[in-house]
Amino acid sequence: MNRDGLVLAAGCVLWRRSPWGDGGLEICLVHRPKYDDWSHPKGKLKRGEEPLAGALREVLEETGHTCVPGARLPTAHYIDVQGRPKVVDYWAAEAGEGRFVPGDEVDRVLWLAPAAARHRLTEPRDRQLVDALLNALFRA
């Protein structure tokens, strides 16, 4: 949180090519038991942490995967569950090596095709990030 009471956070829309089948695009969603929701990996920035560094750290902490950042995606602005204004910076990120281990913050991950990911996401603002990722990846 900054001095104005603004909660600063960052995350990624994590993607990969399916390891089986047609090699289609898959997006990683995380389930947070505290909120019983499905979202993109994200989290609050540590004091003095740059947003991209925080986004990459959160992806690793929540999914167990390293990642390679790509295009900057739209920033989300909203009021968090405690009534504070929150700003979340997002990037597209291709998944690298890693293995998910369930924890208190994230107990499940799913790799889904974009349409299924859009449907599973809890918040409409997160669905818009799927479209932004597709536009960034497949822009002519």
Automatic annotation (TrEMBL):
Keywords carried by this UniProt record: Hydrolase
Hydrolase in keyword set: yes
Gene3D superfamilies named among the record's database cross-references: Nucleoside Triphosphate Pyrophosphohydrolase (3.90.79.10)
Matching InterPro entries: NUDIX_hydrolase-like_dom_sf (IPR015797), NUDIX_hydrolase_CS (IPR020084), NUDIX_hydrolase_dom (IPR000086), Nudix_hydrolase_domain (IPR051325)
Pfam families: NUDIX
GO MF: hydrolase activity
Keyword Ubl conjugation part of the UniProt annotation: no
All residue ranges annotated as the Nudix hydrolase domain in the record: 5-135
Name of this protein: NUDIX hydrolase
